[in-house]
Design brief:
Elements: H1 2-45, H2 49-52, H3 54-73, H4 79-99, H5 103-124, H6 127-131, H7 137-166, H8 168-189, H9 203-208, H10 211-231, H11 234-239, H12 246-273, H13 275-292, H14 300-314, H15 317-328, H16 333-360, H17 364-380, H18 385-388
Helix pairs in contact: 1-3, 1-4, 1-5, 1-7, 1-8, 3-5, 3-16, 4-5, 4-8, 5-16, 7-8, 7-12, 10-13, 10-15, 10-16, 10-17, 12-13, 12-14, 12-15, 13-14, 13-15, 13-17, 15-16, 16-17
């Protein structure tokens, strides 16, 4: 009887983990959806492609603020309730985006998306280990973060395809429906998840006094800013290659996403042994791949192969960085997850904004070179390994 109950409990825990992955899939797909829709969105709402990139910059900025503040605001609330409320808000935001009559209304909808992104990231990142404690905690965390990679595989390409067939508004409407389904599923399968340690604003300055945390966050800022400076405008980068139409771009983005799923679990395996080293290897590989895309402009085959390697490298970023930060301050898991989510999303916004200015100015080559240089600097950033032990939060 005890064995049967344990099996049922274990199965239910993994069902909850997979549902959390669906939630991260939903918010990341919504966040990244404009990447595949920028051209049509800009044309319909009469703005430049660089200006349309604000639909990615704005939610990133809002998420950067919401990620550390939301856990403080709901510090005593059950995490299941918080996640369900955030998914319902995500559904409303996507519906508003689908119906937006003008660009400012779309930006307002994307502001609400930013709140959802920051909140879900901050709360869900550490729940895998709570649902599956012990030896399975690392794998559970990788599964939760796999929603990010799967968003690249199915979310962005599917949204791009739906946008091409039916119009970009239907892509946002589809995400509204998905958010409602995930909210209902979270309410059904997650157990009560009361807050373990109330997060207060004062914890964040203390975390930043830990040298390892500071340098890991610097690495994240450089790497993620570089990635999104280039990736946000990957469609015009790919379309400069002769004969690369919308259908082929969607296929290439699908390949990127598939490679990202593999990279998520490969990065998780590397991070289980040495997360800081994994993050350095990922940074160096990503910088090299993005730089090689510059001379590959004339070849569809070379560009496609490099895009697959790009996806493989970037797929391991989130899980490796999360594991490294959690290892640096194991006594404050939700607080460090919130700080990580805030910094990560600020870097997304910075990268998208910088890439937009470069895309509207010097062009795709400058976008790629900037992304490669920043990723290379991330690989060279120190990790504070020596000083970190002496300055614990």
């Amino acid at each position: 009887m005890a064995s049967t109950q344990l099996t049922a409990s274990s199965t239910g825990s993994w069902t909850g983990v997979c549902t959390l992955a669906a939630a991260t899939f939903g918010v990341v797909t919504t966040e990244m959806l404009p990447v595949g829709l920028l051209t049509s969105l800009a044309r319909t709402l009469h703005v430049s492609v660089g200006t349309a990139g604000l639909t990615l910059t704005l939610p990133g900025l809002v998420a950067a603020v919401a990620a550390p503040l939301l856990p403080v605001a709901v510090r005593r609330a059950d995490r299941r309730t918080v996640l369900c409320a955030l998914l319902l808000l995500l559904a409303a935001a996507n519906l508003l985006a689908a119906l937006a009559p003008a660009f400012p209304v779309l930006l307002a909808a994307r502001l609400l998306v930013g709140v959802c992104i920051g909140g879900v990231w901050a709360v869900a990142a550490g729940l895998g280990a709570r649902l599956v404690p012990g030896p399975g905690a690392g794998r559970a965390t990788a599964v939760v973060f796999s929603g990010i990679a799967v968003a690249s595989v199915f979310g962005v390409p599917a949204g791009t395809l739906l946008g091409a067939v039916a119009g970009w508004r239907w892509a946002f409407a589809a995400m509204a429906g998905l958010a409602l389904v995930v909210a209902a599923r979270l309410a059904a399968v997650l157990p009560p998840l009361p807050a373990e340690d109330a997060v207060r604003l004062g914890v964040f300055p203390r975390l930043l006094r830990v040298a390892r945390v500071r340098w890991l966050l610097v690495t994240v800022v450089l790497l993620v800013t570089g990635h999104f400076a280039a990736y946000t405008y990957v469609r015009p980068v790919l379309q400069r290659t002769p004969g690369t139409g919308p259908g082929l771009v969607s296929a290439l983005l699908l390949g990127y996403g598939l490679a990202g799923v593999a990279g998520n679990f490969a990065g998780g395996a590397l991070a289980a042994r040495d997360p800081r080293r994994a993050l350095r290897l990922i940074s160096g590989a990503l910088g090299a791949v993005v730089l090689f895309l510059v001379p590959a402009a004339a070849s569809t085959a070379a560009s496609g192969a490099l895009l697959l390697l790009w996806g493989l490298a970037y797929g391991g970023v989130s899980v490796s960085a999360q594991r490294a930060l959690s290892a640096a301050v194991p006594e404050a898991p939700e607080a460090v997850s919130a700080l990580f989510a805030g910094v990560f999303n600020a870097a997304i916004a910075l990268g998208a904004f910088a890439g937009g200015r470069l895309a509207d100015g010097p062009g795709p080559t400058a976008v790629l070179v900037t992304g490669a240089v920043l990723a290379g600097l991330a690989a060279l950033a120190p990790d504070g390994r020596t000083a970190g032990a002496a300055t614990r939060a």
